[in-house]
Amino acid sequence: MTEETTQFPILSCEGMSCTIAARPAPLQVLHDINFSVSRRKTLGIVGESGAGKSMLIKSIMGIAPTPVRVEGRILLDGIDLSTLKPKARSQLIGRKVGIVFQNPMTSLNPFASVGRQIEEAGRFHLDLTRTQARERATELLRVVGIADAKDCYDYFPHQFSGGMKQRIMIATALMCRPDLLIADEATTALDVTVQKEVLDLLQILQEERQMSMILVSHNLGVMAGRTDHILVLYGGHIVETGPTAEVFRNPRHPYTGALLSAMPRMDQPAHARLETIPGQPPSLSNQPRGCPFAPRCPSAQGLCHNDMPLMSREGDHRFACHFPLTETSVSKEVSHG
Ligand SMILES: Nc1ncnc2c1ncn2[C@@H]1O[C@H](COP(=O)(O)OP(=O)(O)O)[C@@H](O)[C@H]1O
Ligand code: SF4
Ligand SMILES: [Mg+2]
Questions:
Q1: 61 CA distance to ligand 3 centroid (A)?
Q2: In this predicted structure, what is the pLDDT of residue 310?
Q3: Torsion angle of C-alpha atoms 241, 245, 248, 252, degrees rounded to 10
Q4: Ligand 2 in contact with 293 (CB < 6 A)?
């Protein structure tokens, strides 16, 4: 047996759901989420704005922006997070997972030097001395491509461009040598050239450091050539998941097919909205009884409006649709930007 087959995934979610404690009624944001992230592999999570991508990441990490009830099993490095006390849980997550979000200014403290901020995670989670943390943080600034790392150490966030700030966030995320790096729309706010540079950097770091990675984006274009598996979220449901090449070649869910047709190319602004799919995503307070995509789906039939489709499986490829696409209806060339 190879080393690969003896190891359990770095992250697994089994039957996970997430409900916001809202009035007058609770709002379910995520429904029956099942997936895992293999060692040294990259999973892409894609879906329109509001699909639940960030809630998924934040619920797993225990940092949801609002009180939520999370059910199901979440295993990090084989450990069921629900069995841990809050302190042990956040320590495990802090050591094993590094996260980079879209807006570095909400994560970076404008009043502290970037070096001190990168150091902090190492001092907190790894008990490094000040000198050890400073050495590692300086080295990480170099690793993420910041020239003059020693001088930049004492600079403040506003002295860096958007792309450089994201590199600093990546350095911060790497401080505890995570096994899993999560980039949640980390390049969405950047212009197209810088977006590509930062995505390339993430990919290089993932390979060099043998990490697993979750790349979250509304832009299917960034997934091609950068992810091993892909997970398509719609209205808080996984509607399709599988090996990226297979899903791109042979999308079975009409929403994935629509996303592929509407895919922004790398020569378009990274934050371009996917406006070519007519209609609106489902509202949390008024969720359809049947398939969540039914109100917008060109293939919808009566059954779709009444019955939630079950997940079908073809090898590693899973999709939830009563009338799946049967042949590749997307002829568009896939950009490998
Ligand atoms: N703090 C919050 N309070 C209430 N609802 C929220 C909050 N954050 C997100 N939501 C809702 O949860 C759903 C998923 O949001 P989110 O995970 O941020 O989507 P995505 O990251 O895919 O754009 C959306 O319908 C959004 O309106
Ligand atoms: S189940 Fe019906 S409505 Fe939903 S995606 Fe499939 S064909 Fe469309
Ligand atoms: Mg988000």
A1: 14
A2: 97
A3: -50
A4: yes
